[in-house]
Structure formats: C-alpha cells, structure tokens
Design brief:
Strand content: 5-15%
Number of helices: 7
Number of domains: 1
Strand order of the largest sheet: 3-2-1-4-5-6-7
Number of strands: 7
CATH architecture: 3-Layer(aba) Sandwich
Oligomer: single chain
Helix content: 40-55%
Order of helices and strands: EHEHEHEHEHEHHE
Shape: globular
CATH class: Alpha Beta
CATH superfamily: NAD(P)-binding Rossmann-like Domain
Largest sheet: 7 strands, parallel
Length: about 240
C-alpha cells in the first residue's frame, strides 16, 4: 500500500504541465488532492481525470499574485481539512529578455509568483506540516541549478532565490521531521515551454523534451521514500539521444 494513501496534498499550478501530472500521480496513489490554479475550468478538467483514481479531489481558483487570494485559499482549506500533509509548489512563470530590454514589471511578476507565493503558502501551512511530519516539494528549474544563461536573468534570479528558501527551510524543519525536496527539471513539454520556444523563434518539438510525467514519477517516488531517508535535490534533464 502506498504511504501516500489518504494523505492531504496541495498542488499549485495544477491545471497543466508538471503540476497537473503530479496531481494525477498523487490521486493515483490514493491521496486526497487540492488543486490550485487561476482557471477553474482547467482545474475542473484535471479534477475530472483525477477522480478515476481518488474521490477526494477539490479545486481552489487562486491568483498567486494576489496576497488576499492566497490567504483566503489557505484559510478555507485549513477550515475544510484541518491542514495538509504534502505541499507541492509547481506554479511558475517565465519572461525572457536581456537586461537592456527586459521590463521591470515582468521581474516583479515573476518574483511574486515564483518566490513570494511559495513563501507565503509555506508560512500558512507550516504549523500543520510540522504537526503531521509533512513533506514540501519545490518544483524549480535547471535555471535555478546551473549558471544563468543570457536572456533569462530575471527568471533565473527567482529560481535561485527559491532554492535558497528551500535550503534554509530544510535546516529549520528537519528537526520537526518535515522533509523538503527541490526538483530541477530541464525543458519539459508544457504550454509554458511552448510559449517560451515561440518567443525564442524556435520550433516546438515536445517529443524531444522531458514529459511532465517524468518529473511527476520522480516526485512520487521521493514522497514514498521510507522516513529513514530524505532526498534533498534532484536534477533531471531531457535524455540526449
């Protein structure tokens, strides 16, 4: 029997890409899953898929740029379920541009979604996660693991910041038996990647990229790991054939 059965999991960015794949993977393990995203219609479509595995699926339409919406969602979820066992930070955005051309408003937006929202959500659920010996997963990026390339300085800065938050948090909560994992996926077939490659004037070839299910499989395996061990950082990249 999976160690995730009946565990309460919250997944941000659950309407597509890696977040959706992780949410479906958790449901397949018998977890109770809360889907968080900006589009209720897309979340409901994921929920409909997830219900073939688990009947305990709920959706929370939330704009992670807005503090009040984050606070309201967290309060409603706490009231409904009393807390969570697993927190998956998968929401994110990217804007590209060289420093002499990049828009500072894009930098602010990436910071709010990629860093600040994850920080606020972790703060909100940390008491329950400590009580339940929970697990926290930060879906980062190779941009937060390797040296930053030209044109993605803003995005890479937010992802390096997210790694720092995860590393510091791990040192703070391991004593409470809370595990913290950061995953650094390479380019993954997803709507965000399709838009990014269009912005770079590149042909989108999803079959040559990692698939969302690849990262989801790694995350599920790490969450199922016996409590005698902790995986802290996982770097994944497309397999070069």
């Amino acid at each position: 029997m999976s160690s995730l059965k009946n565990r309460m999991a919250l997944v941000t960015g659950a309407s597509s890409g890696i977040g959706k794949a992780i949410a479906l993977g958790l449901a397949n393990e018998g977890a109770r899953v809360c889907l968080v995203g900006r589009s209720l219609e897309k979340l409901q479509a994921v929920a409909d898929c997830a219900k073939q595995f688990s009947g305990n699926i709920s959706t929370y339409k939330t704009d992670l740029e807005i503090d009040d919406e984050i606070s309201s969602m967290a309060a409603n979820l706490q009231q409904a379920f009393g807390g969570i066992d697993i927190l998956i930070h998968s929401a994110g955005m990217i804007a590209v541009g060289r420093m002499d051309q990049a828009c500072i408003e894009d930098f602010d937006r990436q910071y709010r979604i990629n860093v600040r929202a994850a920080y606020l959500l972790t703060q909100a659920f940390l008491p329950a996660l400590k009580m339940r010996c929970g697990q926290i997963v930060f879906i980062n990026s190779q941009a937060g693991f390797l040296a930053a390339k030209a044109g993605v300085g803003q995005y890479a800065a937010t992802k390096h910041a997210l790694k720092a938050i995860a590393d510091s948090l791990r040192e703070e909560v391991n004593a409470d038996e809370v595990r913290v994992l950061t995953v650094f996926p390479g380019r993954t077939a997803s709507p965000m990647q399709e838009a990014l490659q269009a912005a770079e004037n590149r042909v989108y070839q999803p079959e040559r990229l990692m698939q969302p299910e690849d990262t989801a499989s790694v995350v599920i395996n790490a969450l199922n790991l016996p409590r005698t061990a902790e995986v802290t950082d996982i770097s994944i990249r497309p397999f070069k054939k």
